[in-house]
From TrEMBL, chain A:
<feature type="transmembrane region" description="Helical">
    <location>
        <begin position="275"/>
        <end position="293"/>
    </location>
</feature>
<feature type="transmembrane region" description="Helical">
    <location>
        <begin position="165"/>
        <end position="188"/>
    </location>
</feature>
<feature type="transmembrane region" description="Helical">
    <location>
        <begin position="124"/>
        <end position="145"/>
    </location>
</feature>
<keyword id="KW-1003">Cell membrane</keyword>
<feature type="transmembrane region" description="Helical">
    <location>
        <begin position="93"/>
        <end position="117"/>
    </location>
</feature>
<keyword id="KW-1133">Transmembrane helix</keyword>
<dbReference type="GO" id="GO:0022857">
    <property type="term" value="F:transmembrane transporter activity"/>
</dbReference>
<feature type="transmembrane region" description="Helical">
    <location>
        <begin position="18"/>
        <end position="37"/>
    </location>
</feature>
<comment type="subunit">
    <text>The complex is composed of two ATP-binding proteins (LsrA), two transmembrane proteins (LsrC and LsrD) and a solute-binding protein (LsrB).</text>
</comment>
<feature type="transmembrane region" description="Helical">
    <location>
        <begin position="222"/>
        <end position="243"/>
    </location>
</feature>
<keyword id="KW-0997">Cell inner membrane</keyword>
<feature type="transmembrane region" description="Helical">
    <location>
        <begin position="49"/>
        <end position="81"/>
    </location>
</feature>
<protein>
    <recommendedName>
        <fullName>Autoinducer 2 import system permease protein LsrD</fullName>
    </recommendedName>
</protein>
<keyword id="KW-0812">Transmembrane</keyword>
<dbReference type="InterPro" id="IPR001851">
    <property type="entry name" value="ABC_transp_permease"/>
</dbReference>
<keyword id="KW-0813">Transport</keyword>
<dbReference type="GO" id="GO:0005886">
    <property type="term" value="C:plasma membrane"/>
</dbReference>
């Protein structure tokens, strides 16, 4: 019964590898397309990355708390389809539809959390079930053939630019949304009791419970934030992608990949919102590069699958080396 | 001392888990009969119709048998749906209407399954990647490769191979008999071979298994290979049934999630080490009965999907809700 | 005199920051029971793990039947004939007795299939050696057996491998009196068959009853070696090797003990019956008993984790009925779990985060993590300083700290909540000897400041030395009470349900 854990810990590298990866990718993009350093280049890049980055920032909460949220992709779809059904081409409807969609995101997250906490269904199964259910609802709501329009007032967030900004000439509204949402989520995760407790329940739920942490409340909150982030991502995507029943498909895995690239630990205990943002930007940068190289859409999927596995394998390797 | 150490051990006697699949099956059957009678459609209660119900779940059943193996070793496989699509397309393209190519096509499909299973197993046991992520990643890779080549029905299955899905031996469809045979084989492997015993040991307590000299990595890899080969057989069956392969048949059937749900409903625990094939078969029956109830009751197909999602979660909850363990 | 089957010479093993063993020599002969005794942390487990190949020694050598062996995996030592029965069973609860006995080496038929009939027959044959054989059906699932029977299965498993050396690590921890006797008979059987037995324990009675020779480890070194079993005092002196009075903090004086903070009357639930209990301010109450006696169940009932279903609980004069740990904490109870790693710590978080965990749990979710109604960063750091926690920085992950420092961080977690009652479960388990005294004095200081303390421990000398009063539990009831200064024997008798005459 000796203590083997008294080792003076080797300092982990201070820089998260995701930033190195992102830098390399951005340099590669600039090399292939020098116009990337102009505002039109990087602002468009950020605009395209915004939904994923927001989604990843929400996903980090669930992953850090020890779970997965696979329902976010279908939630995006439901938000886009539902908004188009509800607004029905009425520009003034936007003002109540958007709050309603945000509430729906929170609600779906709450249901996920309640199912995990009280029915004790592992989040993987619970959110996969939610994914099927929401996809079915999106079909049901739209009768299988969604209308292809959203009013311009709704598309403002995803599509519009704010012009005549000093230094950068213009800023897409979605980039402002990105900065605000990710900033808020980062503050919540790293500067508040909520964030510390999300870490604690993912690290060791039994210890957290015995230390008095309201494990269920924290877990449900994490799922609600993930649902909210999906609703926001859906509103942005509705702005620049069309309305269809597969607009959100695949986003759940991209969000998990981004979070894992950012060093979030699967099954909980460690996770960073800024690093997840880095992961989302890196993933988008990889897709951009693949685009430049003229590789077709399916290759993206293959590459993403490889990145996902490689990122986790790399993290496991590092954990074994540092003796975690 | 941990909490668990100090609480009295489980007493012998009635073990709910052992009987739960049968209880559920009885319940599903009762609902089916009641719905058929209430809607005045007694024709659904004939023997032929029951066989037909079973016939609709064969692909799910085959996949679930494979999934039982990986879940028993405390792993999971979410790549089966993509693999089903890939093997269906592969087989149908290789056959391309020619009976002479049936055997090569079958071999190619099985080889692809074996390769995918081997890779999954190596990534899970060698690189220690969380099996959910490893197989989700694999699923992306397969789906991506597949859609790079085909986007619609591809190839054609010769009439001779359609026997697999449509042939009958006496009153029984060939495929149903095949499923039965596969289940018996799987049961025999789990019950009578050292490999079967090792599966339960690795899933039950990996460290104890390793201390007993069991090569745990090999057991995990082999289980993944079995699971993937089962999925490729399910792909062959679907190609035969649809007379051609399409890149969406796996994901349309939600075979990944449904096969897991079927296994869990059958009493195999997700944490591994407990359960078996007959429970999985009972789970498959429960699912097909529920599906038939929807059909009799005339539930809209989108609504059916919604209900399916809810039923899967409810089914897992049925087992999970009794545990005191905190899940995430 | 026969040659030793196992000879370990000059075994040295260090873990980062700790020298677990230095120059330990140890041997065991066929047909003898060699008792290996020592306090927690003395190095017994490390020595066994080196013998079985879980760890590799930094220096020294292991000889088996005169030949040097070097096991790098427990499977190798098992094949060589060394079977270790760990405290945590390695049985598979979902598999049958026969399947467990032959795990990994099932007999096969000509066709390569498992020969269940032979396996069953062999199982019966092996079990026939044991008194419990009649009770055990080879086809029963192990999870359905009681702890004592599981232990027999575990030993039978060792025997069935043809082990020439069997190591038993505190095998009686969970057994009642009758079951202990049965185990002793089993050990006698093995000895008569020429098996060499290494028997780890710290119960004097078992040493007297079973051992042929005794080796005492202390702080990673051999403190004493006896070729005949000496008087218990000699062993204890060698084990502790210092003045006991200093090691434990002095007991409370009558003036220091105040009014009851906790009163329980007639309380119970599925695991507990008719619990009557008082804990006074300034008092440390020890709770002894064998594993499964319900000590932890009692702690968890008080703490609201597995609540009482009937009876009365009064905390600081108010009737309470806690249904969750949160409500118990708000009511003024703190609990230090027995298994630090799995129940106490959030290992990937910093020392400070571990210390502030509980105070944060009762502050609004959206408020700053730097200060709350109970404490703030500066005060927490001051508290950690005050307890002399040794860490490079309080931002360091807590997993890198030693057990004693980790335990102090958990204590810090509770101190900021100012609890009226603190429950310590196995407070010094896995903590090195030098840090133990620190924990005892910390507990005493807390009591002096007015808290009531309930201490659950399986370490009898600890219960006797550190507590002002000892309650003994047996089968979910409080069976006896002893004042400070009871003997180990009194307590063991009460704990195992043996009344009257000693064995």
């Amino acid at each position: 019964m000796s203590d083997s854990a008294t080792a003076p810990k080797r300092r982990l590298p201070q820089i998260n590898p995701v930033w190195v990866l992102l830098t390399v990718l951005v340099v590669a993009i600039i090399f292939m397309n020098p116009r990337f350093i102009e505002p039109t280049g990087y602002m468009n890049f950020l605009k395209r990355a915004a939904p994923l980055a927001i989604l990843a920032a929400g996903q980090v909460y669930v992953i850090t708390s020890g779970g997965f949220d696979l329902s976010v992709g279908s939630l995006i779809t439901l938000v886009v389809v539902g908004s188009s059904m509800l607004t029905n081409n009425d520009p003034t409807a936007t003002y109540w539809v958007i709050p309603l969609m945000l509430a729906m995101g929170l609600g779906v997250g709450a249901v996920n959390g309640l199912v995990v906490c009280f029915l004790r269904v592992p989040s993987l199964i619970a959110t996969l079930g939610m994914m099927i259910t929401l996809n079915g609802l999106a079909f049901l709501w739209s009768g299988g053939a969604p209308r292809g329009y959203l009013p311009d007032t709704f598309r403002f967030f995803g599509r519009e630019l704010i012009r005549d900004v000093p230094l950068v000439r213009f800023i897409p509204v979605s980039v402002i949304v990105l900065v605000v949402v990710v900033g808020l989520l980062a503050w919540l995760m790293h500067r508040t009791n909520l964030g510390r407790q999300v870490h604690a329940i993912g690290d060791n739920p039994v210890a957290a419970r015995l230390a008095g942490v309201a494990v269920n409340r924290v877990r449900i909150t994490a799922f609600m934030l993930s649902g909210l982030s999906a609703a926001i991502a859906g509103i942005l995507l509705g702005g620049f992608a069309g309305v269809s029943t597969d607009v959100g498909s695949g986003y759940e895995l991209q969000a998990i990949t981004a979070a894992v690239l950012g060093g979030a630990q699967l099954l909980g205990g460690r996770g960073s919102v800024p690093a997840a943002l880095g992961g989302a930007l890196a993933l988008t940068a990889i897709f951009t590069l693949l685009n430049f190289l003229g590789l077709p859409q399916p290759v993206r999927q293959v590459v993403q699958g490889l990145i996902l596995i490689a990122a986790v394998a790399f993290a496991m390797h590092r954990r074994r080396q540092t003796g975690t | 001392m941990s909490i668990a150490e100090d609480t009295p051990r489980r007493k012998a006697g009635f073990r709910f888990e052992r009987w739960a699949p049968l209880i559920l099956l009885g319940g599903a059957l009762a609902i089916y009969v009641v719905v058929a009678l209430v809607t005045g459609q007694a024709q659904y209660l004939t023997f032929d119709n029951l066989i037909a119900i079973l016939g609709r779940s064969i692909a799910l059943g085959i996949t679930a048998i494979g999934q039982t193996f990986v879940i028993l070793v405390a792993s999971i496989d979410l790549s089966v749906a993509s693999l089903i699509s890939a093997t269906a397309v592969l087989a149908s393209v290789v056959m391309d209407g020619s009976p002479a190519m049936i055997l090569p096509a079958i071999l190619a499909a099985i080889a692809l399954g074996g390769l995918v299973g081997l890779t999954n197993g190596l990534v899970v046991s060698g690189l220690k990647v969380n099996p959910l992520i490893a197989t989700l990643g694999m699923s992306l890779i397969i789906q991506g490769c597949l859609s790079a080549f085909v986007s619609n029905f591809a190839g054609e299955v010769p009439a001779a191979f359609q026997m697999f899905a449509y042939g009958e031996l006496g009153p029984f469809p060939v495929a149903l008999l095949f499923l039965g045979l596969l289940a018996v084989m799987a049961w025999a492997v789990l019950r009578f071979t050292k490999f079967g015993s090792d599966i339960y040991a690795v899933g039950g307590n990996e460290e104890a298994a390793r201390f007993a000299g069991i090569k745990t990595g090999r057991v995990v890899i082999l289980s993944h290979v079995i699971c993937s080969i089962c999925a490729s057989i399910a792909g062959l069956y679907l190609a035969s049934r649809l007379r051609s392969g399409a890149p969406w048949i796996g994901s349309d059937g939600v075979y990944d999630l449904e096969s897991i749900a079927v296994v869990v409903i059958g009493g195999t625990v997700l944490a591994g080490g407990r359960g078996g094939v007959w429970g999985t078969m009972a789970g498959m029956l429960i699912f097909s009965l529920i599906d038939s109830v929807f059909n009799i009751a005339g539930v809209d197909s989108f609504a059916k999907q919604v209900l399916r999602g809810i039923i899967i979660v409810a089914a897992v909850a049925f087992y999970a809700i009794r545990s005191k363990r905190i899940v995430a | 005199m026969t040659d030793p089957v196992i000879e370990m010479q000059g075994i040295t093993k260090s873990f980062p920051g700790v020298r677990a063993l230095s120059g330990v020599s140890f041997g065991v002969r066929p047909g003898e029971v060699q008792a290996l005794v020592g306090e927690n942390g003395a190095g017994k487990s490390t020595l066994i793990k080196i013998l079985s190949g879980v760890y590799q020694a930094d220096a020294g050598e292991v000889r088996m039947n005169g030949e040097a062996v070097h096991f790098v995996h427990p499977v190798e030592s098992l094949r060589a004939g060394i079977a270790v029965i760990y405290q945590e069973f390695s049985l598979l609860p979902e598999r049958t007795v026969a399947q467990n006995l032959f795990l990994g080496r099932e007999p096969r038929t000509r066709f390569g299939l498992i020969d269940s009939a032979k396996m069953r027959a062999d199982t019966r044959e092996v079990l026939a050696l044991f008194a419990a054989a009649g009770r055990i059906d080879p086809d029963r699932t192990v999870g359905e057996l009681d702890v004592a029977t599981q232990q027999v299965v575990e030993i039978a498993k060792a025997v069935s491998t043809g082990a020439r050396v069997v190591v038993m690590d505190e095998p009686t921890a969970a057994l009642n009196e009758a079951e202990c006797e049965e185990l002793f008979a089993t050990v006698d059987t093995l000895r008569a068959r020429g098996v060499a037995i290494i028997y780890i324990t710290h119960r004097m009675r078992e040493i007297t009853r079973l051992a042929d020779r005794v080796t005492v480890l202390k702080d990673g070194e051999v403190a004493a070696r006896f070729d005949e079993v000496p008087a218990p005092d000699a062993i204890v002196r060698a084990m502790v090797g210092r003045d006991i009075a200093d090691f434990y903090a002095p007991p409370a004086t009558p003036e220091e003990i105040g009014d009851p903070v906790l009163t329980v009357r007639g309380a119970g639930n599925a695991m507990l019956h008719q619990i009557d209990l008082d804990v006074r301010a300034g008092e440390i109450v020890g709770l002894a008993g064998i594993q499964g006696a319900g000590r932890v169940a009692l702690a968890m009932a008080l703490f609201g984790e597995t609540p009482f279903e009937h009876g009365q609980v009064t905390l600081n004069g108010e009737r309470v009925s806690f249904q969750t740990p949160r409500s118990a904490i708000l009511g003024g109870i703190g609990l230090l779990p027995g298994d630090r790693k799995s129940e106490g710590l959030v290992l990937m978080q910093s020392v400070r985060d571990n210390g502030m965990l509980t105070s944060r749990a009762f502050a609004p979710l959206w408020s700053s993590d730097r200060r709350n109604a109970f404490t703030d960063r500066a005060r927490m750091d001051a508290l950690l300083d005050h307890m002399e926690i040794r860490a490079a920085s309080y931002d360091q992950d807590i997993r890198a700290l030693s057990g004693g420092n980790q335990q102090k961080a958990i204590v810090a977690r509770w101190l900021s909540m100012r609890p009226k009652l603190l429950i310590f479960i196995e407070p010094t388990r896995g903590i090195d000897v030098n840090s133990k005294a620190g924990i005892y004095h910390l507990m005493r200081d807390l009591a002096r400041e007015g808290a009531g303390i309930l201490m659950i421990s399986s370490d009898l000398p600890e219960v006797i030395g550190a507590a002002d009063r000892v309650l003994v539990m047996q089968e979910g009831r409080i069976a006896a009470e002893f004042p400070h200064g009871a003997t180990e024997q009194d307590i063991m008798h009460a704990a195992t349900g043996e009344t009257g005459v000693a064995a």
